[in-house]
Design a protein that fits this description.
The protein has one domain. Strands 1, 2, 3, 4, 5 and 6 form a 6-stranded antiparallel sheet that branches. The longest helix has 50 residues. By secondary structure, it is an alpha+beta fold. The chain is built from 2 helices and 6 strands, in the order H-H-E-E-E-E-E-E.
């Protein structure tokens, strides 16, 4: 076989490369809906996990020895104290029963405000505690309303 014959024997590779690229593109288009569905399911799973964390936390917090010190604690919100000058939340008061309501940011339905309370910094000189108030919608998940920090 001479040089020309040898090179000609590989001409079909060009067509094969094109065919393979076309097949890959076609298969990627076929799996796009599946990838979208998987992404949607993963988002839904994350939402449900957040909701579950809060619901379980509401059940367990009353039995904690030092709520919020080692693990996030959860309560219903009684009221939110706001700084008059900045308009930012200063303190979120807790309650054992629902007493303050706000709309879900997605569907607009009213739900009780829930809060998390946890120590985010611990030292002999200073402790920092964080409070977060949010709405939990069974369909749309968690919508944050306010964050307050306290230094002790």
């Amino acid at each position: 076989m001479n040089r020309k014959g040898y090179l000609e024997s590989f001409r079909r590779i060009d067509t094969e490369v094109e065919n393979i690229q076309t097949e890959i593109t076609k298969r990627r288009e076929e799996i796009k809906p599946l990838e979208n569905k998987i992404n949607s399911l993963e988002e839904d799973l994350e939402t449900k996990r957040k909701i579950l964390e809060v619901i379980v936390g509401l059940e367990k917090t009353s039995n904690m020895e030092k709520p919020g010190e080692y693990h996030k604690s959860f309560y219903f919100v009684q009221k939110i104290k706001t700084n008059l000058l900045s308009g930012k939340p200063e303190y979120i008061f807790e309650s054992d029963e629902p007493s303050m309501y706000a709309p879900c940011s997605e569907c607009g339905q009213q739900y009780p405000l829930v809060m998390s309370h946890e120590q985010t910094f611990d030292s002999p000189d200073e402790d920092i505690w964080e409070q977060r108030a949010f709405v939990i919608c069974p369909d749309d998940g968690v919508s944050q309303i306010a964050i307050a920090h306290q230094r002790y």
